[in-house]
Design brief:
heterodimer; A: alpha/beta; Four Helix Bundle (Hemerythrin (Met), subunit A); Rossmann fold; 8-stranded mixed sheet; elongated; B: alpha/beta; 434 Repressor (Amino-terminal Domain); 3 domains; 21 helices; flat
Chain lengths: 306, 445
Amino acid sequence: MSLVDILKQRLAKTRNNIFGRLSAALQGQTVIDESLLEKIEEILITADIGVMTSGKILEKLRQRIKKEKISDTKTIYTLLEDEIEKMIVMQNHVPMETKLHQHKPFVMLIVGVNGTGKTTTIGKLANRFAKAGSKVLLVAGDTFRAAAGGQLEIWARRSAVEIVRQAEGADPASVVFDALTSAKTRGYDVVLVDTAGRLHTKVNLMEELKKIRRVIEKQIPDAPHETLLVLDGTTGQNAIQQAKLFSQTAQISGLVLTKLDGTAKGGVVLAIQQELKIPVLFIGIGEGIDDLEEFNSHDFVKAIVE
Amino acid sequence: MFNDLSLKIEGVFRKLSGRTSINEKNISDALREIRVALLEADVNFKVVKEFIDQATTKALGQDVLHSVSPGEQFVKIIHDELVIMLGGENAPIRHAGMPPTVIMIVGLQGSGKTTFSGKLAQYLIKRGKRPLLVAADVYRPAAAEQLQVLGQSLDVLTFTPAEAKTNDPVKICFDSITYARQHTKDVVILDTAGRLHIDDALMKELELIKLKSKPNEILFVADGMTGQDAVNTAKEFVSRLDFDGVVLTKLDGDTRGGAALSIRSITGKPIKFISTGEKMDSMEEFHPERMASRILGMGDIVSLVEKAQETIDIEKAQQLEEKFRKNEFTLEDFADQLKQIKKLGSLESILGMIPGIGNKIKNLNIDDKTLVRMEAIVSSMTPKERVRPQILDGRRRMRVAKGSGSSVQDVNRLLKQFVDMQKMMKKMGKMNPADMMKMMPFGNR
């Protein structure tokens, strides 16, 4: 079986689950009435889309049903898909490949709360860039969690890329400083900076993140060229708060949504996109080195609605 | 019970004047608010539905008490019902008749199993146990190393795949029990790998570990920020392993923690611990009332009071009381008080626990360094100056500012605050001791 097939299979697992849900909701429904809309609301809310955003989608749906005089329950399906997809932001984002060619080194900063999968995402990204022929450097900026550096080192070995790390407890800003100095002199194409997981409510830790950003900016004026917030796909409405506060401190340019190989849908990113206009760039669908996919809004919506 | 939700519901009820009892008509709007509050707190959709139905049945027909408004009363009914659902027996950890006791830790990736294992070890040591940590995660890179480093920092022995000379988690867990006996350890903590509930092979592995190692206790660790999917995960883990208790992690953030209610009502298993930070001692036993308030967005005043009682030195408080009475409160005591406040944790976390303030401080930038700076200023004064601050003239103030790395304005501000406080003390000194105790921020009752 090819890799693509494996990926497809995994995504299918997620899809089947919901496929059952909407078709079950439509079963025996011949007219579009309140009870059907209520079922749709349930589908939206259980996908973590949230009360407010679900309400907005339903409102649009109601308007269109009325305006377009829709009576066939099967059409609801397309309408719903359409309305959700409209909420997804893709504009204003320069593709990563373009950015990669504009900057050398291309610096990426990865942030997020604890346990969302930052280090794993970096491991996968490293592999992706290395495969494309880039000279990649990983920076072990998580000096707090026990063995975080060791974890990143194993990922570095897996894709045969270099890593800069210091002892546990070292100042992350100084690790980053050293790494960027050598990245510049030794001609790296891509620098991926890992950071310790931190809850967005911890003022001191968020200040530390600001400092890391400052150090990067000082070394390379227009860097970091991409700052990714890694969100756990199983997280509920708190993800909105995470995105808000991390944006304030670290100017997030893109989101990575992980753990979508389970039954969670990650619908909360719709609310985040509505509010902050930050695009989702990647989704994580497993622990393997290739289990990172570029975000596809159509597939994502399908996974919620189908 | 004054908070956003109460206010909203208050508004709903105000529109309906002249009601004397809670009936289906006058609570339907209030119910809508409760429903939204619960859903926004990430309580599962179906669980919310069931819960509201139950609570409504209880509320209907109740007469509105004179002392409270219908809104407040209704919120209280909901709150109490939530407490009942979240609570139940808070069974402590079951220990084996014949040591070692085996505790198995399971959960999704990134929920905080390894960190919790370390905290549990620390918790057990404090209770006179000798735990062994077992690294049964052979999949995630450096997982064993992480547990080992944690073990070293706690001075706890760790059993790793390298030590077990095998990469089979089932065998590692099984062998660790003999190893524990050989090293006179009486509790074995099995830190298993994170896995998705739909990963059949890995779930089977857990079943095998359970079968072979016969744990006395299986704890399911769940991220406190989990959304709607919490029910799917919990359902699968409980049906496969029939775990004994739940641990909720990452509750030191601002999540409302609705997953607690979802997991509790789906599995019927008690929530045993909550985890509130990255330090090894930030683990607490579960309190249903606090969780209920949190889910409803009502702040956590009980935790604050309890935390204050735990950290504030009673003896010092009494000494201070004595000084208030005799009007001998000096800058030295002032610095002492600052230290006590600091022990409570960050200012933000303290304020976050106060109902009604919780949501409002998010945009306020609270700087814990203020306290440190104030302390530095007092520390830069001579003993004489601390007792008699009136001798601090311009030159002395300049010296203090330099010594503490602050500005003369900072010093002036602190002195003014101190004088204000002294004035307040004087007033309090004239009151009788009982009244005074009520006014003291952290006095013992």
